[in-house]
Design brief:
Helix content: 10-25%
Largest sheet: 8 strands, antiparallel
Number of strands: 10
Distance between the termini: 29 Å
Order of helices and strands: EHHEEEHEEEEEE
CATH class: Mainly Beta
Number of domains: 1
Number of helices: 3
Shape: globular
Amino acid sequence: MAYTRGDSKQIIVGAAALFIGDYSLEYYEALSAYKFSAAAASANGLPAFVQGTSFKETLSGGAGDAAYWSNVGYTMNGLEMQFQPDFGEVQVDQLLDVARLYKQGMTVSLVTAFGEATLENLVTAIAGDDADLTGNSSTSNGQTLELLSGDIGDVPLERAIAAVGPGTGDPNTTKERVYVANRALSIENVTVSAKRDEPSMFEVTFRLLSAANGSYGKIVDRTV
């Protein structure tokens, strides 16, 4: 193969659409026997890819598995997935450096900022329960989010995440990259602000946990 400097088609530029699932995909799988009808259920609560249809449209369908996913709307500062392996070291007398490294830990996180400062997005950002949000903002009584401290020993609420952004390949065809997180927990500080010269947004860091099979999720490059 002849030398080439590179391929500009493989450069990805552009934002991703972010969707939040009601539960973690691992929990979806456990509930699939009764959470979904036999006709609508997929293996893990994530809608199947449909030829000729962007996955953004599939997740927005509102029926079957898609009914349990919601679009967070505008995001700011994009989307980042961070992989942080932790390696232990084996030192021996005869070498000044380590003789061997071995993997002893792994941390995966997803960072973004919700540009739409809705109470629904705030519930997701602070790992709140949907039941904490009551009412409707279009009524005189308004919409209320109860800010609860919780109890000792409470387990953080897990949700699933799916993001759909531009993919690599021929720009004359529709390419997209799909990011899926099985178990996402928001355990970092979240700030709610009202400032004169800055928009109110929710910066959120999701810690990703692996499912029983060791999978954090997946990244899929597909042609629509």
